[in-house]
């Protein structure tokens, strides 16, 4: 096989030329919420309750990234731009990364690894915390099986496993809904529920 045909085949496998620069730009842009929190923390602008601000912000961005990931397939089908599928893994891993930050913020900064305080909080809000924790735990196998080697190893079972993203999104929206319901602020949960 000639080197020209190998290059052409590699280009087809990697997708249109715009995919790589857009992926790089998205990778950097998706760090914005974290950079913003760090900047606000350095400047002392996290508000009266910084831990709550950080937790809520990270939780919201986790939900945003989950929603974007879920939106890729219908947008791809509507527009016919099949290269959009190449962004799903990165966006899904960002959703997982922010979910890890959300969970870590809760157990470390909010509760300082105090198991008794966590159990007391679970006692006050058992359903809210259980639903959120279930969504987080269900994200772990998706993140672990996202590399191409795992896709090949799992074969058709990979797609079945990754369909749990719909359940995860529903649990995350429910968690968010109940968090906001106490403050009678359901505009955003309704928006995410509609997507």
SSE blueprint:
Blueprint: H1 3-14, H2 19-29, H3 32-43, H4 50-79, H5 88-110, H6 115-124, H7 126-144, H8 148-154, H9 156-162, H10 165-181, H11 187-194
Q: TL;DR of this structure?
A:
The protein is an all-alpha fold and 195 residues long. It contains 11 helices and no strands. The chain is globular, with a radius of gyration of 19 Å.
3D structure, described in words:
- The protein has helices at residues 3-14, 19-29, 32-43, 50-79, 88-110, 115-124, 126-144, 148-154, 156-162, 165-181, 187-194.
- The chain is mostly helical.
- It has one domain (31-194).
- Helix 6 crosses helix 7.
- The termini are far apart.
- 18% of the residues are buried.
- The model has no long low-confidence stretch (mean pLDDT 85).
Outline, from the CA principal axes? globular
Radius of gyration: 19 Å
Strand content: under 5%
Q: Helicity range of the residues?
A: over 70%
Characterize the largest beta sheet: strand count, sense, and whether it forms a barrel.
none
Task: Provide mean pLDDT, rounded.
Answer: 85
As for the number of domains, it is 1
- Tell me the series of helices and strands, N- to C-terminal: HHHHHHHHHHH
Poorly predicted runs: none
What is the straight-line distance between the termini? Answer: 47 Å
Strand count? 0
The DSSP helix count reads 11
Q: Specify the structural class.
A: mainly alpha
